Amino acid sequence: MYAETFWELASQKYAAATALLVTLAIPLPLVAHEHAKPRHSKLELVVLGSGGPRSFGRASTSYLILVEGTPRILVDAGPGAFLELGKLGIDLARVDTVLLTHLHIDHSGDIPAIFLDRALTSDQPIHFKVFGPQGSGLFPSTRQYLRLLFGQGGAYEYEKTFGADETVEGVDLPIALDSAENEIVAEGDLRVREVATHHGDCPSVAYRVDYQGESITFSGDMDASAIPNLQHLAIDSDLLVFHVGVLDPPNSPEILYTLHTAPKQIGQAARDARARHLLLSHLSPAIEESRRQVLQSIRGSYKQGTEFAYDGMRIPVLATKPSPNPKGKSGIPR
Ligand SMILES: [Zn+2]
Asked: How far apart are the first and last CA of the chain?
């Protein structure tokens, strides 16, 4: 519905076809080559919410990571993610790990609803492990945020009396830009790393998920001061999910440049991180109206496949690797 180019349209159709085929458990040939063997992505991304803080028809930011076809990790939980989960019929039975890039409402507002849904549909004890930034100023730490929701005296303390036995463990991550990268999940071949970013006065972090040679990095919301940290974390990622919050200067209100990275710098960061594919998300009405301009700015320095996210989009990571076709096209469409 938002497609502006053939490649964007093809991407949307491909993603829809992929979702259907995966649902039907039909092997999906990812490369249209006579001798190519069908390959399966080990990591997949499902976009539950592709919008930012405004309500204009998109759910706010949220993603699910599927490992070997099973949903395992929730990244952010903006308002609307709960609804999209139900629309897609996603089973949360193995989703115990939550990665919060920061605690703005458009990234965390649906946490209680999603936790309740999981509790009501499980007959096994649940242990949520929720990673997120330390607190600062008006922002609680992630542990404190979870206590305020589900802890003693919290707004939703009752939630633990519903459905399955449930424990919620919060992990506070460093927020100073000179903090070291950390590995926070190491379960077999599934690895998650994080690093501090910067999002105005709101503590924020970025995450990278690796599994058997495939990788996805999430910028979260960040201003340009965090680009060196993000580039280091994202180096050689198959898929870089970057949040867009502004147009190139001077086309957005000045204050927003203290919170978000301009498209030109996003393109340069994706190029320097050698990301193999770029997904633009956290979209606002202002970005929607200027999609062509945003893409042009990014393509000034980044030549790999670049797409705009949409709610319900499903991306097998393997399909984001550079295509061998002579046109030099790469990315999701084949
Ligand atoms: Zn946001």
From this structure: 20
* Distance separating alpha carbons of residues 268 and 2, to the nearest angstrom: 25
List for the chain the helix, strand, coil content (%; round to 5). Answer: 30, 25, 45
CATH number, position 111: 3.60.15.10
Q: Does residue 27 lie in a domain region?
A: no
Domain annotation covers residue 161: yes
Which residues are paired to 278 by β-bridges?
Answer: 240, 306
Instruction: Say if 324 falls within a structural domain.
Output: no
Q: Ligand 1: distance of its center to the CA of 204 in Å?
A: 11
pLDDT along the chain (334 residues), means of 10: 38 42 33 46 96 93 96 98 96 95 98 94 92 98 97 93 89 97 97 98 98 96 97 97 95 92 97 97 95 96 96 86 41 30
Distance 221 CA to ligand 1 centre (A): 6
Domain, as residue range, for 189: 7-15+42-314
